[in-house]
């Protein structure tokens, strides 16, 4: 029973293409996130949704569009892919808040390579 | 913006040795988190700290929340090969709640 599952795990695509990464959590959390990990392993938040509503939107190109059809799903669509988009994208989920019991759980990551 | 400075960036140790890494910030955090990322996997929470001065253990791992609330350290005792991975400190940026800021990571290699 994978708590936070994302697909695909590996994606190789050409510049200019549009691609989507899907994420689902079965933990009953109300908040989901997308994080990006660059080639230097640095992790940075991109978006966060709480109960299907966008609550965090970092400085991310508008080619990246998250969509949350329900609170258990948060998908990431990327238009006009560029070489610099190559990275590992992690979906995560939690209950909203930062105290005990609000642990953020991460998926296994989606390795995106743009060629 | 806020940053977490984590050191060292990498460590190469012999199996059985103890390991220590730390994380500092110019800002106060109310929570300190330590995650481990295995190769090809996502980060997994190891230890969460919620009170200044708190010392918490999880098996061979021990972490402390600094008194100033601007630092934390993680110790691993008697390292084993499966300790290999990247260790991240993280803290939530309030009032955004779950928005985590991460340190740069400490990559640990353990030689059998």
Features:
heterodimer, A: 115 residues, seven-stranded mixed sheet, four-stranded antiparallel sheet, 55% strand, B: 112 residues, mainly beta, six-stranded mixed sheet, five-stranded antiparallel sheet, globular
Task: Describe this protein's structure.
The complex is a heterodimer of chains A (115) and B (112). With 115 residues, chain A is an all-beta fold. Helices cover 0% and strands 55% of the residues of chain A. Chain A is built from no helices and eleven strands. Chain A has strands at 4-7, 10-13, 19-25, 31-37, 43-50, 53-57, 64-70, 73-78, 87-94, 105-106, 110-114. In chain A, the strands form two sheets. In chain A, strands 2, 4, 5, 6, 9, 10 and 11 form a seven-stranded mixed β-sheet that branches. In chain A, strands 1-3-8-7 form a four-stranded antiparallel β-sheet, with no helix packed on it. Chain A is globular, with a radius of gyration of 13 Å. Chain A starts with a strand and ends with a strand. In chain B, 0% of the residues lie in helices and 54% in strands. The model of chain B has no long low-confidence stretch (mean pLDDT 92). Chain B is an all-beta fold and 112 residues long. The termini of chain B are far apart. In chain B, a hairpin with a 7-residue loop joins strand 9 and strand 10. Chain B has strands at residues 4-7, 10-14, 19-25, 32-37, 43-49, 55-58, 61-65, 71-76, 85-92, 100-102, 106-111. In chain B, strands 2, 4, 5, 9, 10 and 11 form a six-stranded mixed β-sheet that branches. Chain B has a five-stranded antiparallel β-sheet with strand order 1-3-8-7-6, with no helix packed on it.
């Amino acid at each position: 029973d994978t708590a936070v599952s994302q697909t695909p795990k590996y994606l190789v695509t050409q510049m200019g293409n549009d691609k989507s990464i899907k994420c689902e959590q079965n933990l009953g959390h109300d908040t989901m996130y997308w994080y990006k990990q660059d080639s230097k392993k640095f992790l940075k938040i991109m978006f966060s949704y709480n109960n299907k509503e966008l609550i965090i939107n970092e400085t991310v190109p508008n080619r990246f569009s998250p969509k949350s059809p329900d609170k258990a799903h948060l998908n990431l669509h990327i238009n006009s892919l560029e070489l610099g988009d190559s990275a590992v994208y992690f979906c995560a989920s939690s209950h909203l808040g930062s105290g005990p019991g609000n642990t953020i759980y991460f998926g296994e990551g989606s390795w995106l390579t743009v060629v | 913006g806020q940053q977490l400075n984590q050191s060292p960036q990498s460590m190469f140790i012999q199996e059985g040795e103890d390991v220590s890494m730390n994380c500092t910030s110019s800002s106060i955090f109310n929570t300190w988190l330590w995650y481990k990322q295995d190769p090809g996997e996502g980060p997994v929470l190891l230890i969460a700290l919620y009170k200044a001065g708190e010392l918490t253990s999880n098996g061979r791992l021990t972490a402390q929340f600094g008194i100033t609330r601007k630092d934390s350290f993680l110790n691993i005792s008697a390292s084993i090969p499966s300790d290999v991975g990247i260790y991240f400190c993280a803290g939530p940026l309030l009032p955004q709640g779950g928005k985590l800021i991460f340190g740069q990571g400490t990559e640990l290699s353990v030689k059998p």
